[in-house]
Amino acid sequence: MTFEDQLNKYAGMVNDELNKVFAKKECLQKSVYDAMEYSILAGGKRIRPVLTLAVCDMLGGDIEDALKFAVAIECIHTYSLIHDDLPCMDDDDLRRGRSTCHKKFDEATALLAGDGLLTFAFEYITDFFAYKNTDAKTVLRIVNEIAKSAGCAGMIGGQVVDLECEGRSNVDEKTLTYLHNRKTGALIRVSVFAGAVSAGASDEQLQSLLKFSDNIGLAFQIQDDILDCVGDAEILGKPIGSDEENRKTTYVTLLGLERAKEKAESLTLDSINALSMFGDAGKFLAETANYLMKRKS
Amino acid sequence: MTFEDQLNKYAGMVNDELNKVFAKKECLQKSVYDAMEYSILAGGKRIRPVLTLAVCDMLGGDIEDALKFAVAIECIHTYSLIHDDLPCMDDDDLRRGRSTCHKKFDEATALLAGDGLLTFAFEYITDFFAYKNTDAKTVLRIVNEIAKSAGCAGMIGGQVVDLECEGRSNVDEKTLTYLHNRKTGALIRVSVFAGAVSAGASDEQLQSLLKFSDNIGLAFQIQDDILDCVGDAEILGKPIGSDEENRKTTYVTLLGLERAKEKAESLTLDSINALSMFGDAGKFLAETANYLMKRKS
Prior knowledge:
By secondary structure, chain A is an all-alpha fold. Chain A has 15 helices and two strands. A two-stranded antiparallel ribbon of chain A has the order 1-2.
């Protein structure tokens, strides 16, 4: 199977499950389901859930069980985008080439759709009867790690620091890395964690995989900064130059474009090196790291 | 022990644990922790967590284990208040006699503090090592029910319908009850569920207790409507007459004050009758139902 075939296979599993889960519901609170569906079925690369499935698959775990965690993590990712786009946060009108949730619906509905996706994620992965080969303690361990990663020590914490850094001219690289390790990195890390732990990874395997994820997490963010600077608005599905407009400190403003590119490449190489213990089986993950590095959106 | 002593004992356990959990944290994202602490330590009656502890205690369960669920439910309740108070929702300035979270901090911080409390609730109750006498499957069963109750089929769904009913003059009692069974009722119901299931309640015990909770849940909301109409703003900690001002349909506008009072009393009586199988052991819960009926805030 080519890399693209395997990527499409995993992403297809995620999309099929999301389509099933977010099928139209008839009830008095239909509007919030519509908004949730609109945002989560808007597309996107499904990178996080693909990582969960790929890691689990590589380790010979039950990929259907891992799919539960994968879908929940994508719900949490989507909720964070909806809330980040709100007027009191980044105030964005476009996301993945379409109107943001609060533009398509309204602010109250978008707020509640975000709350709904976050809450649904935890409902969905705590339904013990839906698992075939994962014991209850392992489910709890993964759910706990997902909550930690999404919380104030993780993703939310990163967003808080991001907001506080806005318009400040004295943000240093240490702070920027602290911020992105949480805002973007934490959820990427737990995507890999979920795939690994659900497949019964050894401690040694888990540590190598987390090193892989930490490196691609930061490389991913640096690439985001680079794309905001030199990307194609049409392919990105959002305007470029927004960081400069918002006077945001990014890896590009701190390091310059060339050194930012070098850093992203070096982190990608480190992530691939972290996979050495898996030999040929690690090929898809290594190719994913390269794919993320070369992406245009 | 008098009713007040027992109530204070349970509420004290909840407050002690909340104080411990929300102790000051030094980190770059401190502002969101401050906002979470501000809102959750603002007081409040702690009715939901008290119910969880009281039910567990009555059934001879491990009250320290039940305290985990109790605290998580109070976090979810508080997150819902923070988000409901936001300008795009009810736009309220006062809550429990103090500035609402977004007034004290700002909108972005309040939004993230709400997200943080919701996420923390799930982190806190999925830490399996913190339980002494509850097995992993039972923990998952309770977490799943809490997520369902807080989600779009429960609390969030109720808020959606509430927003959609605002300003509409043709809201009937069926819709109002649908709304309140979700917006307020679902979390009260799961508070009782968590206490019962963590204590290993039989199906028969659980069904009786859920009947109890469904009746006090609705009585509680009717009493809220009555207090908004005839209450004392000082004791309530918020202005009265807000429902009329917002042209909200309430049990008072639908039934009139007298019939609303009768309905609340009759539901309270039903809730107490549902406890008959517990005999004397059900006394505290019965007194709680009366206490909620007679409250002034």
